[in-house]
Amino acid sequence: MQNVAEHMSTKDYYRILEIKPSAGSQEIRKAYRALAQRFHPDKNAGNPLAQLRFQEIKEAYEVLCDKQKRDAWHYQHYNPLQKSAPTAYSADDILQQSIQLYKKYSNQDPFRLNQDTLFAQIKQLLSNDYIRILQLQGEIHTNSAVINNILQSTYLLPYEYVQPISALLKNITPVLPQTEEDIQSCLLEKKRQMLWNKYKIPLAILLAGVLITIMLLSK
After folding, report:
1. Do 101 and 153 touch, CB atoms closer than 8 A?
2. Any transmembrane segments, and where (predicted)?
3. What angle (nearest 5°) sits at the alpha carbon of residue 35, between those of residues 123 and 157?
4. How many CB atoms lie within 10 A of CB 43?
5. Distance between CA atoms of 208 and 217, rounded to whole angstroms?
């Protein structure tokens, strides 16, 4: 049984379904239906590779559509977190793991960063079990410090990753009032960045067109 689990952990189910780790349940189902239809054995008679692909797609869907299985697979698959962040038994353990995470990525080259791995490691820190530990021990300053370290670790991530992270961070209580504001401020800043990156080129083209029109009319 252990060998099977280790084998499953080596598969990248997100890559198999051609989605990102931030994908929600609807996106997972949509990707599964499209790929299952494409590689279904009935449509690929005599093609053993298609049949193997179909089985992998089915396996990936069965894991990712089940929250408990998905969380367990995250823990198995992302080995860097397992090595640097052992199982936590107290709020202080979680705090130390958040510090290690921040230190690891504070000087990271943004062009060499694996965003999917960072996102998965943050989600592991925000697992149901970890959040429950923080809630039960109720150490307001420790909770706020954990959130602060995670927020600082998200500076290299885009809005689509930070949005679900922020939702999980809000489940950690109690925290300082400023910490609640920091979560919202981080999310708003990432949203502004997303909108700017999305519309800066159209705006630049529009502005250039306006300037050219003004120049032509002034002649």
Report:
1. yes
2. 199-218
3. 30
4. 11
5. 14
Contact criterion met (CB below 8 Å) for 147 and 169: yes
Instruction: Answer with the residue of higher pLDDT: 36 or 214.
Output: 36
Radius of gyration of the chain (CA): 22
Residue 176 CA to chain centroid, in angstroms? 25
Cβ contacts of 81 within 8 Å, gap of 6 or more: 75, 120, 121, 124
Summarize pLDDT for 172-204 with one digit per residue, the tens. 999 999 999 999 999 999 999 888 877 778 777
Instruction: Give the list of residues 6+ apart from residue 22 with CB closer than 8 angstroms, or none.
Output: 119, 160, 161, 163, 164
pLDDT digits (tens, 9 = 90+) for 121-154: 898 889 888 999 999 999 999 999 999 999 999 9
Between CA 183 and CA 193, with CA 188 as vertex, the angle to 5 degrees is 130
Angle at 167 between CA 25 and CA 121, to 5 degrees: 75
Total residues found in the chain within this entry = 219
Smallest Cα–Cα separation from 116: which of 23, 47, 181? 23
